[in-house]
Amino acid sequence: MQINWQAPKPASLPDKTRGKAVCLLSGGLDSSTCLAMARRQGYECYALSFDYGQRHKFELEAAARIAAHFGAARHIVAKIGLDAFGGSALTGDIAVPKGRCAAEMNEGIPITYVPARNTIFLSFAMAWAEVLESSAIFIGVNALDYSGYPDCRPEFLEAFERLANLATKAGVEGRTRLRIQAPLLRMSKAEIVKAARQLEVPFGLTHSCYDPGAGGAPCGQCDACLLRRKGFEEAGIEDR
After folding, report:
1. DSSP codes joined into one string, 35-69
2. How far apart are CA 23 and CA 19, in angstroms?
3. What is the pLDDT of residues 89-140, one digit of tens each?
4. What is the domain class of 2-235 according to CATH?
């Protein structure tokens, strides 16, 4: 693991927090909003991102900006080579779908699904949470906009939470019961955009594109770009 930076506890946090939380942070709108929610609830946040061989590696720069903006106690980027397996448009030599309508996006499991990605991400978060003696992992998955992803479903999260409390020393000894928190799970993209504005998430620091151009410019036509645009339009909020 590579530790990007470590910062002192932000002065704006309450004297007594709800404890530590590991927050999965991609740098996209959803995970950034999720981090902001955890912080608003009084958690001391530890941000965890992944360099997994994704073509949109620019998102890691966005994650670093968001972690710094919200005063994460630490931000770690774990390097894992999921591109060694391929099998996804995000990690292999497969074209990213462009210009799809909502019906096409909801038809089956999209090629942008990365096999076992959230299972692996949550496993890393579980390990760090045990070291931190944290009882909370925040993940910004959404079952409405990405209904085709099997690892974004509530039953998956419930099953992983049960596994986490069976698989850790802290869980077996009864010292800590880990909770997987997914506050965006049943929200529409427009609802997420509105929540993000209320939480003062800096939209311009986030990154959502699956196939960015030079310098991270969004393509504007991949599923992630189209869903983001739709969410902002339905929320009546300008995306900066």
Report:
1. HHHHHHTT-EEEEEEEESS-TTTTHHHHHHHHHHH
2. 13
3. 999 999 999 999 888 888 889 999 999 999 999 999 999 999 999 999 999 9
4. alpha beta
